[in-house]
Structure formats: structure tokens, C-alpha cells
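Table S2 (continued). Query chain:
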Amino acid sequence: LALQADGNFYFLESAGAVNDVFTEELSYFTVPVAFDLKLNVRAGTDYQFGRALGTPFWTDTADGGTLSIPSVFIAHRQSAQDVTATNGRRGGGSELLIELMPKSAGGAAGATVADVDMTFREPGTNRIVTSAVSAPYPYPPQELQPKGYFAADNIAAVQKSFVMLNIFVGMESVVNDFAARRAGLNTMTQLDSLIAAVEDYNFEVQDTDIALDLELLRKLRQNLVANGVPDGSSPPPADPWPAD
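Corresponding output:
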């Protein structure tokens, strides 16, 4: 209903979050910050688009994709610590995660990973605002840095997005294995390595969102064991996520 009627919708992790939405969010989602938002993403010559996660409005193209949203509103939730008394989270705001992978061979250092163009209509003035951003990678496409490469004004937010993407992809892979009846020791090793890596990351940053996601990962592990998946994975490495 919210998608069709140009409104906001929320993910409610607990019953306590319902009250928060109606008492704290209601006054915010009537304040538009942009109308007719259009986003166009094009993969660089040495990279190929994988997929976009975070919105049903995304449309794939030959070299990337486009996103069109009728309106964008302010969300009240301002930080990872903004949860209910029972650690319930309400899904105010949104995040778009885009996968781009190096092509099989070739490519020089400093190549552009993707170009992003954005336009929107400014509320109150109807002025059309445009913006263009290129995302370069200073190393050859196939050369992955042990500690990752993050270039942004708010590096912590980009790193968290990277961790969130790994959590999603890891959970998706494990659940698909179980659904296809091929979950085994390798599946459990993959999940245990992910849990250890996320624990390693969150030991330093102490992010409440990531801590709650860790709870979900551990519950997923318990459910796998309870449903017959062997519990004998290989121990994770001593430093599972050097990027932290």
C-alpha cells in the first residue's frame, strides 16, 4: 500500500517498535526532501554489474540500472542505538547496496568502478537538482586489498554497509543451501566464518545494529543444527576480518 500510494513503510522487529512508529515517525514522514528522484548507475569498462539490494523500484539495464522514486521523506531514526527498550528496530530510512565485480581479466589501476547520476525536484521551489559521482578504484580491478578499500567522507558508514552486504549475502547463501537440501559441513563453516568476522568487526565499533544482526546469525545457526545440519565446522581463522 505504501509503495502504491507514495508513502513510507516500516519493518517492525518487535511489538514495541509499533508504538515508536506512530509516536515518533508520524511527524517526520510528512516532510519531503525530494520529489521525482531518479538514479542512474553505469558500471565502468573494467567492471560488471551484479545486482542491487534494498529497493523494489530498481530496474536492471545492460550496464547497471536505474532507480525512480516519486518522493523521499525524512526518517526519525538517527543512529544504530535508536532502538526500543527491548532492542526492537523500526526500519526508518533505507539503504541501496549495489554489487559491482571486476571482469575476468585486464584493467588498469585507477579505473572507474561506476558512474552515478542523480536528479530530483526540490520541494518548495520545484527546482531540478542534478548531481554526478564517479567511484574510482586506485588498484587494478583484480587486486583486492587485504584491509579493503574505502573512500568516502564518512568511511565508518561505508564500512558498515560493506559488513551489512556480507551479512545479507552470507545468510542468503546458507538459507539457499538448506532449502535445496545441500546444507552440510561446508555450509556451517561458511556461517561460522561469517559470524567470527562480524564479531571481529563489531568488537571495535560496538554498533547496536550489527550486534542485533549477530543475534540473528546465531539463531540461524541454532535452527540449522536443530534441523539436522552437521555441527562440526572448521574453526575460523585467528583474524577473520583484517579489514576492521
